[in-house]
């Protein structure tokens, strides 16, 4: 099932029309190639018009698209020799965070990422990509191993947020997130984070304290979901698109605010339109960043990380 | 006053207040307890540091009242007093809201930081005030707390942080979220230097504050009944589709679940804190 987003409907309709005409010419003697050419030109223009002027709310739709590639898909395409590692050694294993070791350009690395499901059943198993404390503690365990074995850490951010549930609270959701933020501050290995879909508040940040933070072009990163903000501010989640604008959650907004380092381009219409291309882009950015960070001495690295976060903020 | 009003004096009748009027409380003179609903004189109230003398309910305490209640007289020296928020995202109505809360609380922002002495023990202190934008953490709150931790590290003194916050401040968007990282890394640096950090969680300590510096102190204390947790009750109830027990996410609940060391009533805080501070002076590496 292909999910069609509201603002893409004109594109889909036009494309269907073109296909219809093509079928028609196939079955008959009529020559419609001129008409088809005209329509294809119009389609190109239409696509350009829509995809290059996406509103923040439309980007949210793309970031949440059911077909949007997830951490595991990127792992498969970008890394080799991936060994998934499970469990926090304290309570359990949380499938909404995937962790493991692998090779990237022949360098051993640690990979940590939120994992959404690709269908309903998978989503239930993955808890829709919303981790419990054990997910964050599993991630922390991997980060410490990475530091021990001097492996760079690459994290993929893609979550609506940490799971808001009874069990999560009982097992210390706050503590699990807070501890990761603290520990990530002192890990003496390079940390690169890439927001590949939705970056949902503290639940995203808990694996996202990084030396370099990149975002896919249509990814979003926000302190609160646009729906949540809308229901607080205007008492109605219907104003989510307005909130999405006010909150400044797109890659370009966050680049401007100095929160992220680089924007990784997506294919026209979003990462799901060409996963192979997207994976290659991400790999290139990771490679360049890794080369850059490799040169920095370990003590200097964590000092720079602190300086980076220390500077974030606006006041008088 | 007009002269004609001077001559036509209206006769005043004694009136019996309605049931509704009886429930209403004269502003600025009396207060109703949020726990037992009884009405008290403000003066009596403040004598007990805003704790209900009847039922023990701990009401919010303004930051400076908190500092006065803890610090030895004349020892408190405030830091970064004048740091105030801007509106970096041009968020609708943010400036108005800030202005209103500045007037209401007479504070520049939702946290007061500085240093002083508690029963002779020198310490840095950060006190959040839930009356200012729900104690939410934006750039200024995050930065003041991180700066206070850094100063405590440089001065080699402990730090006590009183948390009172609904979480990250929405109006500053991702700049607020990043304060979670900033404050937590500041704690990490403080830890590496051997510093002692005491967190006292007061009502409420939730969201981004709970999920950053508040949960990574060396010692976690809380006031009785304080709401402490990550996600809001309503959101959790919607997610799990069941009613949560009444004591869910209280200080007592967190004690039971191993998240805090001790629940301490407000009246005993000064004494308890000075004991802990003192223990670090005797055996610890700090002077």
Give keywords.
heterodimer; A: 316 residues; alpha/beta; eight-stranded mixed β-sheet; 14 helices; 48% helix; B: 287 residues; two-stranded antiparallel ribbon; 11 helices; 17% strand; globular
Tell me what the structure shows.
The complex is a heterodimer of chains A (316) and B (287). By secondary structure, chain A is an alpha/beta fold. Chain A has 14 helices and eight strands. Chain A has helices spanning 9-27, 33-51, 56-63, 71-78, 120-125, 133-148, 166-170, 173-184, 201-205, 226-233, 240-246, 251-256, 275-294, 298-311, and strands spanning 80-85, 97-104, 107-114, 153-159, 191-200, 212-216, 220-222, 262-264. In chain A, strands 1, 2, 3, 4, 5, 6, 7 and 8 form an eight-stranded mixed β-sheet that branches. Chain B is an alpha/beta fold and 287 residues long. Chain B is built from eleven helices and ten strands. Chain B has helices spanning 3-7, 19-23, 42-47, 63-70, 94-105, 139-155, 173-192, 207-210, 233-240, 251-256, 266-282, and strands spanning 30-32, 39-41, 77-79, 111-118, 121-128, 159-165, 197-206, 219-222, 228-229, 262-263. In chain B, helix 6 (139-155) links the parallel strand 5 and strand 6 (159-165).
Relative strand content of chain B? 15-25%
pLDDT averaged over residues of chain A: 95
Shape of chain B from CA axes?
globular
Distance between the termini of chain B: 67 Å
pLDDT < 50 stretches of chain B:
283-287
Please write the string of helix (H) and strand (E) elements of chain B.
HHEEHHEHEEHEHEHEEHHEH
Q: In oligomeric terms, what are we looking at? A: heterodimer
Mean pLDDT level of chain B:
91
What is the number of E strands of chain A? 8
């Amino acid at each position: 099932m292909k999910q069609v987003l509201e603002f893409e409907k004109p594109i889909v309709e036009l494309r269907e029309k073109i296909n219809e005409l093509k079928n028609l010419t196939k079955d008959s003697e009529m020559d419609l190639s001129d008409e088809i050419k005209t329509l294809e030109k119009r389609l190109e223009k239409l696509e350009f018009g829509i995809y290059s002027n996406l509103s923040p709310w439309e980007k949210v739709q793309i970031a949440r698209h059911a077909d949007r590639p997830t951490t595991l898909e990127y792992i498969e395409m970008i890394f080799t020799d991936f060994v998934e590692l499970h469990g926090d050694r304290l309570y359990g294993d949380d499938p909404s965070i995937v962790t493991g070791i692998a090779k990237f350009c022949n360098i051993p690395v640690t990979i940590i990422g939120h994992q959404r499901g690709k269908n309903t059943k998978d989503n239930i198993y993955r808890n829709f990509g919303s981790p419990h404390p054990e997910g964050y503690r599993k991630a922390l365990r991997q980060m410490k191993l990475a530091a021990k074995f001097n492996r760079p850490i690459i994290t993929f951010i893609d979550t609506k947020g940490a799971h808001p549930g009874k069990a999560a609270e009982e097992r210390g959701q706050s503590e699990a997130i807070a501890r990761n933020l603290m520990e990530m501050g002192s890990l003496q290995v390079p940390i690169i984070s890439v927001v590949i879909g939705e970056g949902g508040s503290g639940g995203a940040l808990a694996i996202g304290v990084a030396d370099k933070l990149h975002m896919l072009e249509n990814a979003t990163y926000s302190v609160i979901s646009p729906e949540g903000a809308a229901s607080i501010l205007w008492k109605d989640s219907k104003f989510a698109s307005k909130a999405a604008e006010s909150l400044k959650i797109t890659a370009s907004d966050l680049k401007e605010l100095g929160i992220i380092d680089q924007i990784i381009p997506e294919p026209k219409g979003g990462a799901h339109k060409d996963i192979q291309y997207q994976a290659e882009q991400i790999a290139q950015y990771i490679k360049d960043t890794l080369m850059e960070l490799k040169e920095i001495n370990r003590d200097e690295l964590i000092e720079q990380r602190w300086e980076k976060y220390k500077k974030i903020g606006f006041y008088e | 006053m007009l002269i004609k009003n001077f001559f036509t004096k209206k006769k005043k009748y004694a009136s019996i207040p309605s049931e509704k009027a009886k429930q209403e409380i004269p502003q600025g003179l009396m207060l109703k307890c949020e726990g037992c609903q009884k009405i008290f004189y403000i003066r009596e109230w403040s004598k007990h540091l805003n704790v209900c003398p009847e039922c023990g309910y701990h009401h919010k305490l303004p930051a400076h009242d908190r500092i006065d209640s803890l610090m030895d007289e004349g020892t408190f020296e405030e830091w970064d007093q004048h740091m105030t928020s801007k509106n970096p995202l041009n968020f609708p109505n943010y400036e108005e809201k800030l202005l209103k809360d500045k007037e209401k609380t007479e504070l520049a922002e939702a946290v007061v930081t500085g240093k002083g002495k508690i029963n002779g023990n020198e310490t840095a202190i950060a006190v959040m005030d839930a009356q200012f934008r729900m104690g939410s953490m934006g750039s200024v709150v995050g930065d003041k707390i991180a700066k206070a931790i850094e100063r405590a590290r440089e001065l080699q003194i402990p730090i006590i942080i009183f948390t009172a916050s609904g979480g990250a401040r929405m109006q500053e968007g991702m700049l607020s979220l990043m304060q979670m990282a900033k404050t937590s890394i500041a704690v990490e640096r403080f830890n590496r230097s051997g510093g002692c950090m005491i967190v006292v969680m007061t009502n409420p300590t939730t969201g981004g504050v709970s999920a950053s510096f508040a949960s990574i102190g060396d010692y976690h204390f809380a006031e009785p009944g304080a709401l402490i947790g990550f996600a809001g009750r309503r959101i959790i109830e919607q997610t799990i589709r069941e009613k949560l027990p009444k004591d869910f996410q209280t200080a007592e609940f967190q004690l039971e679940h191993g998240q805090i060391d001790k629940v301490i009533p407000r009246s005993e805080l000064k004494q308890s804190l000075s004991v802990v501070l003192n223990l670090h002076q005797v055996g610890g590496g700090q002077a």
